[in-house]
User: Which sequence fits this backbone?
């Protein structure tokens, strides 16, 4: 009897202690928090000084936010890519981030006061040097690939990178995008629903090229010491993509959320991005990048569509893609 | 007394009436052409077939609202008298307690019943390992255990040879004597009726006639039976 | 037999199932608001969905005939094991099956390697033909089992009679085999048709592009990417109508044979001569190669990484097994109650039969999304990821188990209904002593099916699973997303091994119970 009273007393104390530690709930994409994603490093880094408990909640970001509406438990949402920002903004859930953007080192201007970019990259076609000696030198050359060359891409209707590709093509070719797709169509091995399936097919040797990112070779170089995977760099420019963080306006932890937003731009956070997420830091000068990263081939020209431009183009670009590939 | 009070059975153009009674402990053969409704009559008494009108009464009590398992009746069907996945002892045990949670005393009763019908040593066998005659014996042993005052037999031994069948009917007679049960036996063989039953019911042309003494019945068969028996 | 009790529980379970299927659909439709119109490409989507399902089902059934005939009339060492193994693809999680198929039929796969050696032009697994190939791979085992069952249900005496009458093979076919096929094949066709109609994972990878979009894939896009619930509701309504039409046309018109029973029996058919022998050897050889090579590829691909499988994989495996076992218990219980109730007949049996088959026509994704919409006022979706997954598994696998149990339940009542009644055997005692032992074989087979399919399900969990609720298929996907292709292959192998083990355990339980 006495022991049970004692036990109850202890658990009450424990509960109170737990209640005193504020919780910051961060919504993140599905890949984020697995031990192979950037989540664990971010959580440990922030909890080291925040005096709080950072809890990730993973899943599809936009469907979940829209489903939950006002009842959302999120304080911060991490991982919204540039192409869904227009839709995310339209929900009205997000408040201003309040951060000084001068620390950003993106190749494009970023005047956004709501969404804060934490990493970036470009879409690119990645190939294997052992199987492809003469990769196409330009995007235009993708239209006249040798007959046997097969490319695997992602569906713009289910994948962020797939959507980035059709916008990339649309940005370069404008009204002629449909013709580009018609020329590329015979070389498209298959269209997968997301990036990982495409990349799996590519590494299994099924395809000669895969739609991926300019930073993809970094994984092979730094994690596997494999120098045979390369991104084909095109002079027409590469489509810019960033992942962003947004603060829920109605958060019940505004100070913690602000602290998190501020921390995202610090070198402490930025240095974890390259190896945890295989993408480039958004606020870190090249001099401070991890060794070897600055040597990755990068395009000279960056194509960037504002979210308004991207949203305006999206439906038409996807429909052109669909129509050309349905022939 | 089992009383069939203006009983009318009907199904898909078939119609059978019965209006008579049998005293307790009597042995009755039910005979008639196939399709005449012998089995249906037994089904109605056992509670598997709902009459259009009329009543089945036992000792003055209407059985209409009594479920088959609760009627004062044990039935032996043409086949499927034992559950093939249960042992012989378990099949018998169902007669004492349908959930098979037998007391030690009840288990002993099962053993005795097996001995009584000549199946000692077969307790753990499955029905699939028994011969046709042994299956009949096991089913009878269960009827013995249930000790209900009415025993209905719907040609359960039709597939057995003449000698074996006679042996089984003798066993039925013993069991009936021990329990004092009223036995009604469906058969298409006059020899069964003459050897076993004091009374006989003729089921033909839509009517189950009132029982008459068997010997007299066969000595002077009615026209409907004569047509059935042939020259 | 406590008819009252069975009727009441039956009605209760049916109401639950109907609610489980219809309420989420209603929730999605309600939330959607405006009813959207079809967009360009929807007609093509509908056409492709139907086309691939019909072709896949037809091919599966046609190919199953020679294979089943060969298996029915030949005796050889390892026959039983071969039949068991050849059933395996039906239980494979689709994402894993696709990996295996690519290893064999892909551009750099085994077959094209051989063809290149022979100087023959390569074959492509991508595109419409790939979708059909994968669907045949997944469903041929089911068709073979159903047809083989049909063959073995022909009494041996008839074949002996045919032999004594000096029938030529053509006459045997005409008088014995064709009537059986006429009875069995429509059922197999209908089942596979519906499976192919609602499957989208195959078209996702092997489809080749927007040409090969299925309705279920379009629903996936609407839910997960566009979050256009109106469109999702509209499309799932479309799919519902499509499946319901087929169900009305075919599914109910046939008498399904139980495809679990009787496989252990010795072959009864005999065929003499070199021609039939050659045909049988070819049929068995080709089918075994087609079905087993991809399985082998999955094993070979996964083995090297097995030693370094991270803890997260085992944790997820534990969760998946739990989900599978709970789904199995709930599904089997519900299917048993419904089958017993419908087998009893009487008023309402037809309605209950319809309700039991209702989930066949629904989209798993819409079902899951709707469930989340329903529970969300009371709890965070991520907290309920696993319960919602269980509910979706139960709803989606119920029709299959129910369909397995129904004919056997009818036999049970026909054979032992009166005996049970006359002994006053009812309620729990009747379930324990009669129903479960008599139905052990289809119960075990059905439970194995649910467990294996629930293990591999990657439907709705992906929407809301947190790290603490990730199931094994989801972890396989996350590994792939993190460039860990080898580890993903090893985790996939773990997934396959557990799925098979669960199926085998339940099926063996059923067969053991039925045999004793």
Assistant:
């Amino acid at each position: 009897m006495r022991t049970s009273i004692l036990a109850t007393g202890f658990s009450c104390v424990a509960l109170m202690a737990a209640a005193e530690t504020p919780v910051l709930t961060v919504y993140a994409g599905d890949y984020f928090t697995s031990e192979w994603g950037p989540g664990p490093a971010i959580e440990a880094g922030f909890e080291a000084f925040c005096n709080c408990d950072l809890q990730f909640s993973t899943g599809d970001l936009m469907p979940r936010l829209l489903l939950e509406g006002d009842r959302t438990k999120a304080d911060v949402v991490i991982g919204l890519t540039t192409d869904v920002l227009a839709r995310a903004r339209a929900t009205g859930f997000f408040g201003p981030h309040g951060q000084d953007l001068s620390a950003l080192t993106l190749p494009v201007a970023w005047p956004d006061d709501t969404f804060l970019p934490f990493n970036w990259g470009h879409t690119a076609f990645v190939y294997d040097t052992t199987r492809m000696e003469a990769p196409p030198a330009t995007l235009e050359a993708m239209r006249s690939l040798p007959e046997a060359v097969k490319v695997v891409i992602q569906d713009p209707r289910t994948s962020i990178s797939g959507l980035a590709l059709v916008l990339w093509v649309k940005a370069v070719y404008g009204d002629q995008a449909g013709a580009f797709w018609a020329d590329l169509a015979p070389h498209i091995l298959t269209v997968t629903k997301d990036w990982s399936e495409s990349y799996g097919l590519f590494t299994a040797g099924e395809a000669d090229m895969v739609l991926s990112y300019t930073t993809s070779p970094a994984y092979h170089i730094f994690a596997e010491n494999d120098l045979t995977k390369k991104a084909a760099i095109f002079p027409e420019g590469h489509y810019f993509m960033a992942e962003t963080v947004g603060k829920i306006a109605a958060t019940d932890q505004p100070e913690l959320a602000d602290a998190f937003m501020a921390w995202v731009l610090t070198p402490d956070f930025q240095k974890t991005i390259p190896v945890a997420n295989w993408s480039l830091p958004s606020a870190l000068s090249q001099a401070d990048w991890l060794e070897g990263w600055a040597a990755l081939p990068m395009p000279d020209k960056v194509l960037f569509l504002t979210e308004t431009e991207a949203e305006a183009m999206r439906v038409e670009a996807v429909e052109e893609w669909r129509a050309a590939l349905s022939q | 007394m089992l009383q069939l009070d203006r009983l009318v059975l009907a199904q898909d153009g078939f119609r059978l009436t019965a209006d008579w009674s049998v005293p307790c402990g009597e042995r009755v053969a039910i005979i008639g052409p196939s399709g005449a409704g012998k089995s249906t009559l037994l089904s109605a008494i056992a509670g598997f077939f709902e009459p259009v009108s009329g009543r089945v009464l036992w000792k003055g009590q209407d059985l209409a609202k009594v479920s088959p398992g609760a009627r004062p009746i044990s039935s032996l069907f043409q086949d499927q008298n034992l559950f093939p996945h249960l042992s012989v002892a378990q099949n018998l045990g169902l007669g004492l307690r349908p959930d098979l949670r037998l007391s030690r005393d009840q288990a002993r009763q099962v053993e005795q019943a097996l001995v009584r019908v000549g199946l000692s040593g077969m307790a753990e066998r499955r029905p699939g390992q028994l011969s046709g005659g042994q299956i009949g014996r096991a089913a009878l042993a269960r009827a013995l255990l249930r000790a209900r005052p009415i025993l209905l037999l719907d040609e359960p031994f039709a597939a057995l040879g003449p000698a074996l069948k006679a042996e089984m009917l003798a066993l039925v007679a013993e069991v009936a004597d021990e329990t004092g049960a009223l036995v009604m036996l469906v058969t298409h063989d006059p020899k069964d009726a003459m050897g076993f039953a004091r009374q006989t019911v003729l089921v033909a042309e839509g009517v189950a006639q009132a029982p008459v003494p068997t010997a007299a019945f066969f000595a002077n068969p009615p026209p409907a039976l004569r047509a059935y028996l042939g020259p | 037999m406590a008819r009252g009790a069975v009727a009441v529980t039956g009605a209760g379970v049916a109401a639950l199932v109907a609610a489980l299927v219809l309420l989420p659909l209603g929730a999605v439709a309600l939330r959607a608001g405006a009813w959207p119109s079809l967009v360009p490409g929807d007609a093509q989507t509908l056409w492709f969905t139907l086309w691939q399902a019909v072709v896949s089902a037809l091919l599966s059934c046609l190919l199953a005939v020679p294979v089943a005939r060969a298996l029915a009339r030949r005796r050889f060492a390892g026959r039983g094991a071969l039949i068991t193994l050849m059933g395996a693809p039906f239980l494979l999680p689709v994402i894993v099956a696709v990996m295996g198929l690519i290893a064999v039929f892909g551009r750099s796969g085994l077959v094209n390697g051989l063809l290149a050696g022979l100087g023959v032009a390569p074959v492509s697994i991508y595109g419409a033909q790939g979708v059909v190939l994968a669907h045949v791979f997944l469903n041929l085992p089911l068709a073979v089992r159903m047809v083989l069952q049909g063959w073995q249900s022909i009494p041996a005496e008839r074949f002996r009679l045919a032999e004594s009458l000096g029938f030529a093979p053509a006459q045997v076919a005409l008088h014995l085999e064709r009537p059986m096929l006429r009875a069995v094949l429509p059922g197999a066709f209908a089942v596979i048709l519906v499976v192919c109609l609602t499957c989208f994972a195959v078209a996702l990878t092997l489809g080749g592009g927007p040409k090969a979009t299925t309705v279920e894939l379009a629903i996936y896009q609407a839910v997960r990417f566009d979050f256009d619930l109106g469109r999702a509701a509209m499309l799932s309504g479309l799919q519902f109508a499509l499946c319901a039409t087929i169900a009305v046309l075919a599914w109910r018109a046939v008498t399904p044979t139980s495809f679990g029973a009787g496989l252990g029996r010795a072959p009864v058919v005999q065929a003499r001569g070199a021609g039939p022998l050659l045909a049988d050897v070819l049929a068995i050889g080709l089918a075994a190669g087609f079905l087993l090579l991809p399985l082998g590829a999955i094993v070979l691909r996964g083995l090297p990484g097995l030693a370094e499988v991270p803890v997260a994989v085992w944790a997820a495996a534990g969760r998946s097994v739990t989900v599978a076992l709970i789904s199995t218990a709930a599904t089997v219980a519900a299917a048993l109650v419904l089958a017993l109730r419908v087998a009893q007949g009487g008023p309402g049996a037809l309605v209950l039969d319809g309700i039991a088959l209702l989930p066949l026509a629904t989209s798993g994704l819409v079902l899951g999304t709707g469930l989340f919409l329903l529970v969300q006022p009371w709890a965070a979706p991520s907290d309920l990821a696993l319960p919602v997954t269980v509910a979706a598994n139960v709803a989606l696998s119920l029709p299959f188990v129910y369909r397995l149990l129904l004919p056997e339940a009818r036999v049970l009542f026909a054979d032992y209904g009166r005996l049970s009644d006359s002994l006053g055997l009812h309620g729990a005692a009747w379930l324990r002593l009669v129903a479960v032992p008599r139905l052990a074989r289809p119960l075990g087979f059905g439970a194995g099916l649910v467990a294996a399919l629930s293990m591999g399900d990657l439907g709705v969990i992906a929407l809301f699973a947190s790290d603490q609720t990730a199931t094994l298929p989801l972890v396989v996907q996350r590994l792939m997303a993190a460039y860990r292709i080898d580890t993903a292959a090893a985790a996939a192998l773990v997934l396959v091994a557990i799925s098979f083990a669960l199926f085998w355990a339940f099926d063996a339980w059923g067969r053991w119970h039925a045999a004793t």
Notes: The two ends of chain C are 24 Å apart (CA to CA). The domain at 41-298 of chain C is CATH 1.10.3720.10 (MetI-like fold). Chain C touches chain B through 20 residues (CB under 8 Å). Confidence is low (pLDDT under 50) at residues 256-267 of chain C.
